[in-house]
Write a structure and sequence with these properties.
The protein is of the alpha/beta class and 286 residues long. The chain has nine helices and eight strands. Strand 1, helix 2 (41-52) and strand 2 (59-66) form a beta-alpha-beta unit.
Length: 286
């Protein structure tokens, strides 16, 4: 209906260029709270499906701006993009803004091409697990902690107990397994252009220019200029976003918890999530 109405307008009032759907994949991955939905398969699915359903679009453009997060959610988003691209026979162009690192870069691998700004941060192909230890804190403040479990490893890496070598070894084995999955994804997606450099999988990250030289991305540029160059000066980028929910926030998993206590808990979780998010971005000087 919209296309028919537009065709009735004088040529100078209508855009006859192709519409290029754009989806922005922004923020830490999987760090959801009631007030901060975060980037996950749940929040990304709807805008991705809507973007790929635009019939006459020659491609779908994705803007990735993420310092990483959950490897599971990262891989699920990657897989959904590839499945939709295959089902709808669309090319996928990924544009990196400030950073596509760790899980953010895993998502970027879903692109048939990856284009980044020269000053973008790209890479960090590795796995990290961080936390704090307080083995003497409770004793100092006169608090006795009581934990009862069925299963000797149920409280592995408990922050209120001293670290155990066996626990650390177990965690590092898990990290190595996840790291291998990540490496295989990079090799499968970028293997034909990837430089023979062991530093690529060390967890280091690079600017857009250096990432291009290593084969982690294809070229340097920005979304609007690239789309105009590829599909003509009348090409029209169209942003597809998740619908807005309560308080104007983009909808995601769950929503605002019911009741006053739920709201208070949500705010508390939100503050912790904000601190973790700030820590992720700060690793890349952002």
């Amino acid at each position: 209906m919209f296309e028919k109405l537009r065709s009735l307008l004088p040529k100078k009032f209508r855009n006859d260029g192709p519409v290029i759907p754009v989806v922005r994949l922004q923020g830490p991955i999987g760090m959801a709270t009631p007030l901060r939905p975060g980037l996950s398969i749940a929040t990304a699915s709807l805008p991705l499906e809507r973007a790929f359903s635009v019939k006459k679009a020659p491609a779908v453009a994705l803007i990735v701006n993420s310092p990483g997060g959950s490897p599971v959610q990262s891989r699920l988003i990657f897989q959904r993009i590839r499945d939709l691209a295959k089902e709808n026979e669309k090319d996928v162009l990924v544009f990196v803004e400030d950073v596509a690192a760790s899980g953010g870069y895993m998502i970027a691998l879903a692109g048939d091409e990856i284009i980044a700004d020269p000053s973008s941060i790209v890479g960090s192909i590795g796995v990290v697990s961080a936390g704090f230890g307080f083995p003497d804190l409770l004793k100092k403040i006169g608090v006795e902690r009581r934990v009862y479990t069925a299963g000797e490893s149920k409280v592995i890496l408990d922050p209120f107990q001293a670290e155990k070598p066996d626990d650390i070894e177990y965690l590092k084995n898990l990290q190595l397994e996840i790291h291998e999955i990540f490496i295989e994804m990079v090799k499968k997606s970028r293997g034909d252009v990837l430089a023979d450099d062991p530093e690529i999988f060390s967890g280091k990250f690079w600017t857009g220019g250096a990432a291009r030289d290593l084969g982690l991305i294809d070229s340097l540029g920005d979304l609007r200029s690239t789309l105009k160059e590829r599909y003509g000066k009348d090409a029209e980028p169209k942003l597809f976003s998740a619908p807005r929910g309560l308080f104007g926030r983009r909808s995601g998993v769950g929503g605002i918890a019911a009741g006053r206590q739920g709201l208070v808990d949500g705010i508390g979780s939100d503050l912790i999530s904000a601190a973790e998010e700030r820590s992720l971005w700060s690793r890349f000087g952002l």
